[in-house]
Amino acid sequence: MKIAQFSNPARFMALSDWLMPTFAVCGAVLFAIGIPWALFVSPADWQQGDSARIMYIHVPSAWWGMGLYAFMAVASFVSFVWRHALADVAARAAAPVGAALTGLCLVTGAIWGYPTWGTWWAWDARLTSVLVLFLIYLGYMAVWAAVEDQTRAARLAAILCMVGAINLPIIRMSVYWWDTLHQPSSVIRAEGPAIHYTMLYPLLTMALAFLFAAGALVMSGMRAEIYRRRSVSAALRQAAA
Amino acid sequence: MSALGAVFRRDLRLAWAGGGGAAMPLAFLAGATTLLPFALGSERDVLEPLGAPLVWITLALAVLTSLERLFRADVEDGTLDQLLMAPVPLEAIAAAKGAALWVANGLPLAAAGGLLALMLQVPPAAAVLVGLSLAIGAMAFIGFGLVGAAVAAGVSRGGLLVALIVLPFYAPPVIFGAATAQAMAMGEPFVGPLALLAGISLGAAALGPIAAAAALRVQAD
Predict the structure, then answer these.
(1) Residue A195's pLDDT band (boundaries 50, 70, 90)?
(2) Average pLDDT of chain B to the nearest whole number
(3) Using CA of residue A164, residue A165, residue A168, residue A173, what is the dihedral sign?
(4) How is chain B split into domains, by residue range?
């Protein structure tokens, strides 16, 4: 019942009309708090110095790069099973945002890696699995671009997205295995719960800022797609009349 | 059952009769592998540890070249509509087509891959084992490949799209396959990665036809 309500494009347009600017403002405010907090107020890392501050960009983009793929997989499932028109619009709009965040994660990781690890890139488990995620994003967007019939493209892209979701944990496990098989990993650092709260709070602020910004971008992408479909069908009606 | 047998035999005949469809990936495999010693140097101690993993990569690419034609022709000439009316589920038909591709393309490629591994200085007894690991791996490449081939079946000149879709999914079989083959070539224990490779291959062979059939139904709409 709930999903059925949200699947109504007119209802979505009414909702996103105020929700999208709200998300954008929330994101901007959180960035305005989080960026100075992360760059100036929070302490520098005792080993890495100021270079560790790139974490406040790197970690949120990694989280939501993966989070948006999970969102796309759920939307694809809803689109495939119940044929909700809005679900495939949502999955499609989320793809470029997710790919951009994944790409940002890779680039910031490389910039961070050079001063700390001494290399731009290492074929370790986490780097490689994120790179594979980025490639899966590209394949997903290529299906949308290559298949002309949009309803057909939606279903084919949904199938691919779901297959990719099954494969992601396999990739993570397998690359982990591959690493430990050949050489003890010298570069993976333990992160997360071991982090001090003076760094954790600005990180969470930045993560929320990224989440609101990504939400606003996905919604604006969905709105653009709905406007595009409306203008296409309006043009068809005009041509028929 | 006879419908599946007919699909299987038809695809085998199409692969090997006229036009040399199944011979082309073989020629591709030989050509691509031949380039490797030019790039790496032909010294035995350079090639011996790398030969088996390199053949794994060229075999993955050679399987890729056979995927574009797999469902495309059936969509174009209406065979797919006939297959949808068959008294067996489309999933089983996709599996039969994959099995035919494995027999017609995968097994000859694996045999040629073993031979090429030998030429890349892998010891003869190990080269036979490498060929067997390639035969198992071809099952995974074809299983994932069925999905990409079915998704791209409605796109003209979809070969590049198939590659873009399928290549990320080749990461797990390449990781374990190359690890297996390298352990075989170096005379190290290889049962662990081989078991994982076989698991991935069986999973891909089981799940690939299901996703491929879902995509083929979309193509037939």
Answers:
(1) low
(2) 89
(3) negative
(4) 2-220
B168: buried, middle or exposed (CB in 10 Å: 19+, 13-18, 0-12)?
A: buried
Nearest to A146 among B161, B179, B218 (CB): B161
The C-alpha atoms of residue B126 and residue B94 are separated, in whole angstroms, by 34
DSSP A43: P
Instruction: Give the 3-state secondary structure of residue B189.
Output: coil
For residue A172, the distance in angstroms to the closest alpha carbon of chain B comes to 9
Q: Provide the 8-state DSSP code for B86.
A: S
Determine how many CB atoms are found less than 10 A away from the CB of residue A165: 17
Instruction: Using alpha carbons, select from B112, B94, B127, B131 the residue that is nearest to residue B207.
Output: B94
pLDDT of residue A92: 93
Q: Give yes or no for a contact between B148 and B162, defined as CB atoms under 8 angstroms apart.
A: yes
- What backbone phi and psi angles, to 5 degrees, belong to B196? -65, -40
Q: Which residues of A touch B (CB under 8 A)?
A: 80, 128, 132, 135-136, 138-139, 142-143, 146-147, 149, 152, 155-156, 159-160, 162-164, 166-167, 170-171, 174-175, 177-178, 181-182
Are B164 and A164 a contacting pair at CB < 8 A?
A: no
Judged by CB atoms closer than 8 Å, whether chains meet at A163 and B219 is answered as no
CB atoms within 10 A of CB B50: 18
Contacts of A149 (CB under 8 A, 6+ apart): B154
- Residues B21-71 pLDDT 10s: 778 889 899 999 989 888 888 788 888 888 889 999 999 999 998 888 889
CA distance A119 to A141: 30
What amino acid occupies position B180?
Answer: T
The encoded tokens of residue B25 equal 């990936």
ipTM above 0.90, yes or no: no
Nearest CA in chain A to B150: A156
Say what angle helices A150-182 and B124-151 make with each other, to 10 degrees.
Answer: 160
Bridge-partner residues for A149, per DSSP? none
> For B69-122, how does the pLDDT look when each residue is reduced to its tens digit (9 = 90+)?
889 888 888 888 888 888 899 999 999 999 999 999 999 999 999 999 998 888
Q: Is A8 helix (H, G, I), strand (E, B) or coil?
A: coil
- Closest-CA residue in chain B for A145? B161
Q: Name every residue whose Cβ is closer than 8 Å to that of residue B204 and which is 6 or more positions away in sequence.
A: B139, B140, B142, B143, B144, B173
> How large is the C-alpha radius of gyration of chain A?
20
* Token pair of B183 as six digits: 């352990």
